[in-house]
Amino acid sequence: MAYTILCLTAIFATFAVATAATHVIAEHYNWQSKCGFYLALENTANDGRACILQNAKLVLGVGDGQQWKFLVATPSWEYNRTYTVRAVLANQVAKLEVDGNPVETQTVLKPSKGYLYLNRIQPWTIGQADYIMAVESVTISGGKPTIYENFRMTTRPIAVLAMEPQEPRRLKWAPSASGPIVIQAKFRFARYPDLHSIAPVIDRYGQLRYAEWPGKVRNDQDIVAEGLREDKQLRSWGSPGNFDRFGGWKLAGWKEKPTGFYRLTKRDGFWWLVTPEGNPCFYLGMCTVPAINWPVTPVSGREYIFEWLPPKEGVYKSAWRRGAWGNDSEIDYLALHTVNLIRKYGDAWINKAIDNTRRRLRAWGFSGAGKWSEIGGLPVVPILNRRGVPNLVRHPDIFDSNIRAKFAGVIKQQVEPRRNDPMILGWSLGNEFDEIITAEEIREILKKPKTTPAVKELSRRVPDGDIEAMRRCYARAYYEFIYRTVKSIDRNHLYFGFWIVPGWWENEEDWRLIAPYCDAIGYDLYSYECMDSQLVRLSKESGKPIICGEFSFPPFYGGTRGFGCYQVWAEDDDDAGRLYVECVKAAAQNPYCVGLMWFEYRDQPLTGRGAGKEIGPVIGEHYAFGFVDVADRPKWGLISKAREANLSGARWRLEAAKKNTTP
Question: Are residues 656 and 589 in contact, defined by beta-carbon separation less than 8 angstroms?
């Protein structure tokens, strides 16, 4: 079949030495358990260069429960030629063929569980390349059901494919107990041409010029008209009367003594947040509000991809900033959604946009704001930082008394002014993997002079030099210091730790390490199973309440609008709403989970929210996470379903608690 196609993997600005680009054809595995299989095209390049086609490897990974074995094929790849790949997983044998040329090894597949994924690129394996692999079809036998999937990548407009070169599928599938698993796929390669040939790519409203869909903004009046329609809908919904201003449910049939601050209580075997007014609360928050002029996208060096750029002075000045990430002072950044807010609200646009954000969240049934937010009149979840405290390797030397004093001072500066603020749900410090103490970090610490306080103390406490034991020792001391410091300054508010991500750690001992040093364990989880078996098990083991700081299902829209495809994704806004309801209901019915927060309020820019210059059309994340789009228009398919879930969450929890106590 003759066609024209453009390759560009979504490019992340990075200072890393190596570039990795992996396009999965089919995968059904659990990496940690060493079971299942995956078939993928893998590539790497050094010094930040683009991956080139001739270095690409086709890899079949097979897990037997004890180890992984890999079959690798490296043909002399050619452009504009259809390749046929066949992988066979039979009794004690795995075979990989490219156009009939086989590679074979002895191994026994241990089947995995979960979804089967086809034709996808994980966010952490998106790298710059001079080619694209356009998957045409995948068939898989030896499981239920038999898979026959065709893809339409080659029919997409060139510029649309440039933004996100994948068409993922997530399928329910299970390998059969007998008979071989046979995977057959067809794909082609095409070159990545000069981007100037398709520029401009982004229209004056921040949308993809080459994409078409119902409701796309054509002019300023479209934005204003949608604002009037939204106003009518928000008037109809109003602010829910059955909740207090902190998100507490007034109809629970019970109430705690008001303390003026959020706290926790356990009733009928279920943990609850209790609002400052004493009402039980299943907290549902929205991250990154109000996002008036953030996120931004880098413009310098790639001005040509934009159809129109606003003046840097005058009415649109607020949409621009220089050096947005602190170490890139020569780069200009732009928030096109800010331009649209100015178009929509006119004079006093900042106050109007913030006021409408508050109104929206109340009408949509949210308890308040989530992480990365600051908005008056709504509960917030501030994240403390340790800026100004020197690191020994990745973290401060928590055994150094001078460092501890400086660290305590930095925390005090942030906490003390707000210790009497009832709108603070709880404190946390740092985020996700950044606050994990790693084994590699300990090894680097031990290379420091023996007089270094951490080296001396770790050697004293763990004289046998066991790295894992030292890691845990350091982590316990670090987490305990932060927790006790925050509590010594502010006993009014809760502390949630650092938003640990199950699976993104050294091992699950990290959950156990943070658990004693927070009031509720704050975690982030992007998963179709919001209450998966590991999370449930660890929560039950610790016995503590948990609260989810980030979850989301950003729509991919079939790749037609230029957004990236996240590790968990929805097909469209309606599908995102369906997944939202499922997740909130599952969490509300869990005895330990006291709330969730959606990431995030606005869509990320199509051209990426990262840092960099002259690297391509996408720099950093570019996902449709938002409840509102770049033109500040609500996604009603998502919002209408989410609102119903938000208004039902506390009731679902109460009903589950009653069932828990029913004989």
Answer: yes
Q: Which residues contact 212 (CB under 8 A, 6 or more apart)?
A: none
Indicate the residue type of 572: D
Residue 296 backbone phi and psi in degrees, to 5? -120, 160
Separation CA 424–CA 491 (nearest Å): 12
Residue 458's φ and ψ, nearest 5 degrees, are -65, -40
Look-up: residue for tokens 């009731």?
651
Q: 176-199: per-residue pLDDT in tens? A: 988 799 999 999 998 887 889 989
Q: Which tokens in the block code for residue 174?
A: 């299970």
Give, for 655, the enclosing helix (H) or strand (E).
Answer: helix 636-661
547-606: pLDDT as tens digits: 999 999 999 999 999 999 999 999 999 999 999 999 999 999 999 999 999 999 999 999
Distance, CA of 4 to CA of 565 (rounded, Å): 23
Average pLDDT, the chain: 93
Domain range holding 141? 18-197
Closest CA to 98 of 56, 128, 127, 129: 56
- Give CA–CA dist 547/36, Å, rounded: 32
Q: Give the strands of the sheet with 332-334, arranged side by side.
A: 297-298, 332-334, 320-322
Q: Does a structural domain hold residue 77?
A: yes
Q: Name the DSSP class of 311.
A: -
Burial environment of residue 76 by CB neighbours within 10 A (0 to 12, 13 to 18, 19 or more): exposed
473 token code pair: 């020792």
The number of helix segments (H) and strand segments (E) in the chain equals 12, 28
Q: Does 258 fall in a domain?
A: no
**Residue 530: how many other CB atoms lie within 10 Å:** 21
Strands 68-73 and 174-175: unpaired
In angstroms, the CA 603 to CA 337 distance is: 9
- Flag whether 420 is in a domain: no
Q: How far apart are the first and last CA of the chain?
A: 66
Please report, as a single letter, which amino acid is at residue 224: V
Counting beta carbons within 10 angstroms of the beta carbon of residue 418, is it exposed (0 to 12), middle (13 to 18) or buried (19 or more)?
Answer: middle
pLDDT single digits (tens) 369-411: 999 999 999 999 999 999 999 999 999 999 999 999 999 999 9
How many structural domains is the chain composed of? 1
Greatest Cα-to-Cα distance within the chain, rounded to the nearest angstrom? 74
Here the tokens at position 294 are 């953030």
CB 5 within 8 A of CB 165: no
Decide: 639 and 577 in contact? Cβ < 8 Å.
Answer: yes
Cα distance between residue 92 and residue 97, in whole Å: 17
Taken as a whole, the chain contains a residue count of: 663
Over the stretch 422-461, which tens digit does the pLDDT of each residue have?
999 999 999 999 999 999 999 999 999 999 999 999 999 9
Looking up residue 86, the CATH number of its domain turns out to be 2.60.120
Task: Show the tokens assigned to 200.
Answer: 């401009």
| Residues 6+ away with beta carbon under 8 Å from 550 | 287, 370, 371, 499, 524, 525, 526, 597, 598, 599
Alpha-carbon distances of 437 from 195, 386, 541, rounded to whole Å: 42, 15, 22
Question: Can you tell me the distance from the alpha carbon of 568 to that of 556, in angstroms, rounded to the nearest whole number?
Answer: 10
- Domain for residue 427, yes or no? no
In the DSSP assignment, the letter for residue 169 is: E
CB atoms within 10 A of CB 330: 9
Three-class DSSP category at 220: helix
